[in-house]
Amino acid sequence: MAAGTLIPRALADGAPQKSEGMNYAPQGKPNPVVKPGEFVFAAARLDHGHIYGMCNGLLEAGATLKWVYDPDPKKTEAFRAKFPQAQAARSIDEVLADPGVRLVAAAAVTSERGPFGCQVMEAGKDYFSDKAPFTTMAQLDQAKAVVARTGRKYMVYYSERLHNESAMFATDLVQKGAIGRVIQVVCLAPHRLSKASRPDWFFQREKFGGILCDIGSHQFEQFLAYTGSSDATISHAAVGNFANPDHPEFEDFGEACLVGNSGALNYVRVDWFTPDGLSSWGDGRTFILGAKGTIELRKYLDIARDAAGDHLYIADEKGERHLSVAGKVGYRFFGEFILDCLNRTENAMTQAHAFKAAELCLRAQSMAQRVT
Predict the structure, then answer these.
(1) Kind and range of the H or E element at 159?
(2) Do residues 124 and 246 both lie within one domain?
(3) How many Å apart are CA 257 and CA 301, to the nearest integer?
(4) pLDDT given at position 25
(5) Is 136 within a domain?
(6) Which one of 5, 86, 117, 134 has the minimum C-beta count within 10 Å?
(7) Are residues 140 and 89 part of one domain?
(8) Number of other residues whose CB lies within 10 A of the CB of residue 230
(9) Where are the alpha helices (DSSP H) in the chain?
(10) pLDDT (tens digit, 9 = 90+) per residue, 34-45?
């Protein structure tokens, strides 16, 4: 197998792989919003394993997967082993020339996601990118211009909220006022490095964009969503390479502090230090402080107690509760996004929100102090 080819180990048994975040592909219950053939999409540029989760979500919402394309035929072959209905395209032009394709989902090398998305939108298709969607502000500006000119969508797979049931349930609770006005959000997002399995580009600063750009994009999106902020000021940012001297451009630790235009505060810590003994790729947690209560999310496991994820703890004026919401909330983003593409609405996520989260991670990365 070619170096850098990412194939989820759990594809054979159908369960999502939890030991490695790059291959984590959540699977939910089918909840179609369209009939077969009503919303056709293609998968392309399979450089990151997140493409499997992206496609799972779209298929469960009723989308029809018609094409797959990657320059590496081995990646295409591995993808078709999971999704045999996808025809292997001879080129990306073959995909973009198909008038029936409405959307292209892609997980390209991070630095190539923006330019590729612009190519897709210029061809008249909506675009669904893995996070982080950009590595430079120039790429973001180009995408904004193409969106404005073509009217196409540039949506982003911010999976740590959109593809996590506890995170989506917290979204509902906060929006309904369950804990009052949100004052602060703390996001802790450790990830397992799995260094031997990573492709070379993953360690090259120009290509991966930095840790606050990469993992941080999830956290800034959550902050905007939970606080209702439409913008934020970055008051502190730092990155470092503490344990990977063999890859001097790599960053294995990052942190940032934000102040939203809603008045809410945010602290983010991201790192590649998940220990080998942990059953999940990361003990991701989110803490939401409200004026009338608190919410804690233990997204992927309850350490040393429950290997299952999607735990939500809430304390408010009525008492304290633990809710295990796995299998009870679903992943509504995908169905809402499909309907947004069909109806040209913005119910799943606004374009401004997707771009603002991307902008914040780029700004934080550019101003970050290197601490090692």
Answers:
(1) helix 159-162
(2) no
(3) 26
(4) 77
(5) yes
(6) 5
(7) yes
(8) 13
(9) 50-60, 73-82, 92-96, 110-122, 137-150, 159-162, 165-175, 205-208, 211-214, 216-227, 332-343, 351-367
(10) 999 999 999 999
The pLDDT of 224-231, averaged and rounded, is 98
What is the share, in percent, of the chain residues with pLDDT greater than 90? 92
pLDDT digits (tens, 9 = 90+) for 93-118: 999 999 999 999 999 999 999 999 99
Same domain, 208 and 132: no
Contacts (Cβ under 8 Å, ≥6 apart) of 338: 33, 34, 39, 58, 61, 62, 63
* Alpha-carbon distances of 256 from 238, 263, 316, 336, 337, rounded to whole Å: 6, 16, 28, 31, 30
Number of H helices, E strands in the chain: 12, 15
Bridge-based pairing state of the strands 154-157 and 126-130: parallel
Q: Cis peptide before 44, with omega less than 30 degrees from 0? A: no
- Whether 63 and 184 share a structural domain: no
Tokens 């009503």 sit on residue: 38
The residue segments making up the domain with residue 197 are: 165-329+361-370
Residue 78 lies in a domain: yes
Which position has the token pair 């101003």?
Answer: 367
Q: What is the CATH number of the domain that holds 129?
A: 3.40.50.720
Q: Does the residue 2 lie in any domain?
A: no
Domain shared by 114 and 205, yes or no: no
Tens digit of pLDDT for each residue in 132-178? 999 999 999 999 999 999 999 999 999 999 999 999 999 999 999 99
Other Cβ atoms within 10 Å of 2 Cβ, number: 9
Report CA-CA distances (Å) from 204 to 14, 42, 44, 199, 248.
32, 28, 22, 10, 9
Contact by Cβ (8 Å): 168, 332: yes
Give the number of other Cβ atoms within 10 Å of residue 337's Cβ: 26
Task: Note whether residue 356 is domain-resident.
Answer: no
Q: What is the pLDDT of residues 188-204, one digit of tens each?
A: 999 999 999 999 999 99
Residues 230 and 366 in one domain: yes
